[in-house]
Structures are given as structure tokens and as C-alpha cells.
Amino acid sequence: MIKLSQYLTYGILQLLLLPVSVLGAFYAFQKEKYISKKLNISYTAGQVIQGQWILHFFGIREDKKIIKFIKNFPAESHIGFYMMMLPAIIANKITGFTPTALVKKNLKKISSYSFLFFRTMKFDSIISQNINFVDQLVIIGAGFDLRANSIKNSNIKIFELDKKNTQDLKIKTLKKAKIYDNNITYINCDLNNKNWSDDLINNGFDKSEKTLFLFESVSCYLEKEIVENTFEQISSISVKGSLLAQDFYSTKFLHGSEFRRVKKGKELIKKFGENWKFTLDMSKDIKEELKLLFNTNNLVEKELFICGKNSTKSKEPFYAISLAKTI
Ligand SMILES: C[S@@+](CC[C@H](N)C(=O)[O-])C[C@H]1O[C@@H](n2cnc3c(N)ncnc32)[C@H](O)[C@@H]1O
Q1: CA-nearest residue, atom 26 of ligand 1
Q2: Per residue in 82-121, is it b (16+ CB within 10 Å) or e — as a string?
Q3: Which of 174, 215, 282, 286 is 20 to 30 A from 312, comparing alpha carbons?
Q4: Does the global pTM surpass 0.90?
């Protein structure tokens, strides 16, 4: 009954405020596309922080830094998002309305929309559960993610890697928003250059210390050979017990025709020089597929979260998050 009244309130507000939300969405997305292209930065990295903005405003994941960042970031529009989400935000304040996609927990029911929010929350929990057992955190392809800026333990060495333009704009925005953190070492790198771990070591990475590597939604932009090289590099510089958290997309999801929204997204991101490449065949046993990938690089699976089995037409999962450790 409560749910019904929440959705009813949201529906009425959405109707009343439709021009405001359409205008906001149009402005935010046009600005994002135009500036991302002009500055040659990662368009998809911007999309991740939009999800974090939403989670913040629904009170699910407080992240004041991401809001400050977006307010100062030339390729996103805080006002645009606010206008776009206004009906839902007001409904949330009045009735507690929360779109179900933001809080889905049943892995099998995670959909091609709700996985974005699930992913953020799951990587958060992987970090919070493991950060006190490592000495270093390396975020590979960090984009505009600000998790590193919220790590309270200053004894942990933190490194962020990404391509130059994306990383330079991130640093500039962090400084403008007055949330730049001297404890984070930024290293610009292209993972296609196979020796990126040398730069990590030259910038203070300690091979004798336990490390948590995050590789969130980056491998799908790389060729399989480069993904394998990334594992090789990680394994060659890591002590036993280091951790690698990463996610995988299914071949059907990124390269098939089952998901129309994803197909459209693929065309769009190509315009920004980004392209989905590496995937896992999730019609097969995912654990076995991962073993084949990990085994040669001294990695073994520790935890695995397989998503979407019941939400897809093909009844196959389309997304997985894995936590592996070095042996
Ligand atoms: C979808 S974003 C994910 C960003 C971040 N990991 C997150 O979850 O918020 C993909 C990121 O991978 C980075 N990336 C893609 N290809 C790369 C490459 N060859 N070398 C370094 N970074 C790369 C992009 O610049 C972008 O920041």
C-alpha cells in the first residue's frame, strides 16, 4: 500500500514537472557529450559518477565529495541532473519513494540498468572489507571515481592510473573543488603500453607490501591480450595475498543484439573513442572461464558475484564481479 502511494506521488510529480526534467536531461547530456568530446576525456567514466550522484540524493550512499566534484566538473551538470531527477527527489523527500533499481540485492534479478548501482555498492563493500588488511591501493583506470579520496587511513599508499587527459581533468577539478588529496599518487598511463607497472614502481609502489587492485569496468575496453598482460603485471609486482577486484561483462551483453539499450550505447561511446572489447562467454561455466584466465597468473578466485540470470531473455547471466587473490 505504501509502495503504491509512493509510486502514485512520483507519477503525479513526474507529469507536473515533465518539462523541467526533460530540459534538465537534455542540458546535462548535451553538455556531457560536447565537453567530453572537446576535451578528449573518457565519456563512460562520467557516466559512473552520474549513478553515484543519484545514489547520494536518494540517501543510499552518502558522497558529498562526488557532489562537490560534479559541481566543479566541466563535463557534467549538477543543475541538469537536479532538474532531471526533481520529481523522483521530491517524491523521495515526501514519501520515501526509492526506485527499486537503486537497491536491488537479489543477484539473479539484477537488470541491465540496476547493475550500475549494484556495482558501485559492491565495490564499496569489497573496499571496506579489505582495506584494513592491505598497505597499498591501486585503482587501474580510476576515471572520476573518488573512493580513494575517502580512505581515512593515511598509512595506506594510494595510486590511481588512467589516461592522461582524463586524469589531468580529474586533478584540475579536485583542486578547484578543494578536495585534492596529497596522499594519492596519480600516474597517467595507457594500459596498452605493456610496461605500465614500471611507472607504478618508479612512483613509490612497494613490491613487498600487500595491495588491493581495483579494476572496475576497465577490462571491457581492452583487448583480451591486454587484459591478460594486466594480470601478468599485477602478479609480477604483488606479494602473496594481494587482491584484485574487477568486473566482467558477457559477450551477449556487449556484443549481441539481446539488449537494445546496450547496442545504442555501443554506437554512442564509439563517438568518444571508447569501444567495448573484452568479454566473457557467460553461457559457459563462469568459474571455469575465470580459472582459465587467472591460473596462468597466480591468481585464484576468492569471491564471485554473478548477476542477471533471471532478468535476461536468454536466462544467462550478463555481469559478474570477482575478487581474486595472488598466490
Ligand atoms: C567506465 S570507466 C570506469 C572508471 C572507474 N573505474 C569507475 O568505475 O568509476 C573506464 C575507465 O577506463 C579507462 N581506460 C580505458 N582504456 C584505458 C587504457 N588503455 N589505459 C588506461 N585507462 C583506460 C578510461 O579512461 C576510464 O576512466
Answers
A1: 143
A2: bbbbbbbbbbbeebebbbeebebeebeebbbebbbbbbbb
A3: 215
A4: yes
> How would residue 1 be classed by pLDDT, with cut points 50, 70 and 90?
low
Per-residue DSSP letter, 250: B
Angle at CA 227, nearest 5°, toward 138 and 210? 30
Given a contact cutoff of 8 angstroms between Cβ atoms, the answer to whether 285 and 271 are in contact is no
* Residue 168 CA to ligand 1 centre (angstroms): 13
- The domains of the chain, with CATH numbers, are 2-102 (no CATH), 107-326 (3.40.50.150)
CA dihedral over 251, 256, 260, 262, signed as positive or negative: positive
Q: What is the pLDDT of residues 173-199, one digit of tens each?
A: 999 999 999 999 999 999 999 889 999
**H or E stretch including 323?**
strand 319-326
Q: What's the rounded Cα separation, in Å, for the pair 169 and 167?
A: 5
pLDDT in tens, 11-34: 999 999 999 999 999 999 999 999
